[in-house]
From TrEMBL:
InterPro entries to which the protein is assigned, alphabetical: RNA_pol_sigma-70-like, RNA_pol_sigma-70_dom, RNA_pol_sigma70_r2, RNA_pol_sigma70_r4_t2, RNA_pol_sigma_r2, RNA_pol_sigma_r3/r4-like, WH-like_DNA-bd_sf
UniProt keyword annotation of Oxidoreductase present: no
Family of this protein: Belongs to the sigma-70 factor family. ECF subfamily.
Organism expressing this protein natively: Carboxylicivirga linearis
Coiled-coil ranges (or none): 96-123
Pfam family, one: Sigma70_r2
Domain of life where this protein originates: Bacteria
Source lineage: Bacteria, Pseudomonadati, Bacteroidota, Bacteroidia, Marinilabiliales
Protein name: RNA polymerase sigma factor
Domain RNA polymerase sigma-70 region, residue spans: 11-71
């Protein structure tokens, strides 16, 4: 038991901030975020014995975090809103490197971006949250449970959709 407890404490220390960010993507209410965070920790604790090491521990934790967040929101998950905060360090992952002007416009227009992201399907919202976390396509595929090429195609389509919405003239 002591060994499991030490392992769990180390995981929470190493990955607690990531888990909190996932919670903040899926719920804007701080109290709900805390409840979601606790639920994720309970699920990690309960599943710790079943971690086989087939994937990185961070991938496993992200998978539990995303799945728990989706479950936590219950039947309202279709109406779930992504919350994009002012930490834009990984926002560049949504657009290609050569679109500096578009990236700057995105960072200045977080409300518009949030509106656009919230029109995405549930799976696309999950993909974007993981992309905003700075994860690779392979890691996202492992977490979501779809193939890496499928992740690339879905993210490419989302990026194209966003590029259209954020053209300088603001029209499609």
């Amino acid at each position: 038991m002591k060994d499991k407890e030490q392992q769990f404490n180390a995981l929470v220390t190493d990955h607690g901030d990531k888990i909190r960010r996932i919670c903040s993507y899926y719920n804007s209410d701080p109290d709900e975020q805390k409840d979601m965070y606790q639920e994720i920790l309970i699920n990690i604790w309960n599943s710790l014995h079943s971690f086989r090491g087939d994937a990185a521990i961070s991938t496993w934790i992200y998978r539990i975090s995303v799945n728990t967040s989706l479950s936590f929101t219950g039947k309202s998950f279709r109406k779930m809103k992504l919350i994009v905060n002012t930490d834009t360090s990984n926002l560049h992952n949504l657009l290609d490197e050569d679109e500096t002007e578009s990236k700057l416009n995105l960072e200045r227009n977080l409300n518009q971006l949030q509106t656009e992201l919230n029109q995405l399907s549930v799976i696309d919202k999950s993909l974007i949250t993981l992309l905003l976390e700075g994860l690779s396509m392979r890691e996202i595929a492992d977490i979501i449970g779809i193939t890496e090429p499928n992740v690339k195609v879905k993210i490419h389509r989302i990026k194209e959709q966003l590029k259209t919405k954020f053209k300088p003239d603001g029209h499609e």
